[in-house]
Amino acid sequence: MPQAVAGPEIERLIQLLARMPGLGPRSARRAALQLIKKRETLLAPLADAMRVASERIVVCSACGNVDTAEPCTICRDESRDPSTLVVVEDVSDLWALERSGAVTARYHVLGGVLSALDGVRPEHLNLDSLVARAGDPAMREIILALNATVDGQTTAHYVTESLKVHGLKITRLAHGVPVGGELDYLDEGTLTAAIRSRTPF
Q: Which CATH architecture does the domain made up of 8-56 adopt?
């Protein structure tokens, strides 16, 4: 087992950074060292921003997005099309679609996908509120913008069956999204093309 090369506070910082997606132990050490070197201009403001975010961030009760307002900024935006709802797996997917600028609709975050392997069942997802929102008389279309993975497609089928009672148009992203791909890693052009050429599900 490697020995600690710094005090416990710095080691804790490294360990916490290493929990972040895409950061292994080496990357975490480099990031920690950079933060320490730029303590006044980077570490202190980052610590303050994280404290404020921790105190103020809430999950939107309407769509599941994260924001510092309730309901979130997107749900309060009156220029959004109230007749279309884009269903995504996670907040990162919502943000990816927003970066593309291709969506003027409202969103619904499921908070995951069905997965027998991981023990994720329908009751673990934000599905009941989706069915309730789909019952809004103004609703015309549900766009399933779920990741093109096996679990994502299984979830899409389940959602489709759950929403049949409302008789809505249900579409999914076009096949421009690669199989096994995740929305958060796609470029804006691909996401825009996928939204524009969506097909019935």
A: Orthogonal Bundle (1.10)
